[in-house]
Specification:
The protein has 239 residues and is an alpha+beta fold. Helix content is 38%, strand content 20%. The chain folds into two domains: 154 residues, Roll (SH3 type barrels); 76 residues, no CATH class.
Amino acid sequence: MRVEDLVSPRNTAEIFEHDLHALFLKPYMTGDVFAGVPDPDAPEDDHDRTLTVTIVGHPCAIRGHGGQLKTRIPCCIVNQVTTAVPYDEWPDGNFDLFPVGDELGLGERLAVRLLEFTSVHRRELQRSRRVAALTPRGVYIFYQRFSHSLTRVAFPLAAYEAGTRHIVEEAELESEWVEQLAGNDRGEKHLDKHVKAFHKFLDEVVDGEPRRAALKREGGQSALRKELRGEMKRLATAE
């Protein structure tokens, strides 16, 4: 595909969300931005040095059993660039950057440096440190720009959407589950308990296949959402 096929977003809201209440309940996803993460490469005399990072691994690569993060998570560094990259210039250059809009309030002229990698221990990616996340369309655009930065091939956005839509839909269902059942307790362990319960429910085999398989069938999300809401109601009543 040609470079002209790289998608340029219209505005920050198209690709990023930063409602801190919603972010705290969301599952970990590609493109999540975390601030105040201890720098694993900091010298011994500078233990207080921190980084802002973005998860670049696919959800299936960063999460294991029960939806829990794996031990080490592939991330890219986020820092300031010399010159801002307007959205309409995204297809024209700076292919190693995924700019982070100033509107998010995280700093001026920030960008994910797509070729600057670090491995972050899961204990450092606390929900309280997450300061931004990608919208579903933002995830597809991020995949396109990230893979293009490595290969100089720009696959159509529809290809990423087709391969990832069921993951995004599952994330939306998990957010609803956790928000409804966690109550006002925002403790990491408390939320993780509900995340594990959600994935246990999806992993249960019904009619020869796990419930989550419905997400890959046309119309399956609607039926699964109805079943999930029934289970949430049962659990809420039981408590």
